[in-house]
Amino acid sequence: MRIVIAEDDPLLREGLALLLRAESLDVVATADTPGSFLAAVAEHEPDVAIVDVRMPPTHTDEGIVAAVEARRRRPGLAVLVLSAYVEQTFATELLTGGANRLGYLLKERVGRVDEFLTALHRVASGGTAVDPEVVGQLLARNPHTSALGRLSPRERDVLALMAEGLGNAAIAERLAVTEGGVHKHIRSIFAKLDLAPDDRADRRVTAVLRYLEGTGSR
Which residues span the membrane (predicted)? Predict the structure, then answer.
């Protein structure tokens, strides 16, 4: 796995590089500005980019903008975004165009090495990894948004875990229910969100996007 890190904090940047190299992962470049990050992606053609949301010069959304541009230039690039805060713009800006190979973690998660590495490998393998704290905060901000308000509490629990990137077996284990029960909840979620079977769209990804957008940006 070839990795580029974009982080303006030198301690975190070098700490991440040391951590990943200790796990025998190939950190091919580190960058401290959006421009140097994009140049590194072009030069090294990484499999994964780890990107801070807030970077110079304004420390607002430069990292998100650079991540979107990096994926435009290198389709299929996996991106794991790190943020000190829950950024409401993440779902609509970075997830536009598909939620595969994308992750969003709060920086405090890096200290939980096993969880961080699990999320990194999930994203690199084509999945989605959303920090459970992010999911919880987005949900708390607007728990009664339109179609999402039709979901039962248990269905909302299932959808929240889907947003974290968990599969049916992992959701069943987390909620202490059967995998068949999870499958029934997911079918109900699809029905309540008006997501009919359609080969042109992944209903699971669409449901997660609807969840994140509905709870975070409206």
Answer: none
Better-scored residue on pLDDT, 189 or 140:
189
Identify whether residues 126 and 150 lie together within a single domain: no
End-to-end CA separation in angstroms for the chain? 37
The amino acid at residue 41 is V
- The reported pTM is 0.69
* Domain hosting residue 198, numbered range: 135-216
Q: What does the alpha-carbon distance between residue 9 and residue 187 come to, in Å, rounded to a whole number?
A: 44
* C-alpha span between 144 and 202 (Å, rounded): 24
Cα–Cα distance for residue pair 186/155, rounded to 1 Å = 7
Are 123 and 143 within one domain?
Answer: no
Residues 6+ apart with CB under 8 A from 91: 138, 209, 212, 213, 216, 217
- Report the C-alpha gap between 70 and 76 in whole angstroms: 10
Whether residues 124 and 148 share a domain: the answer is no
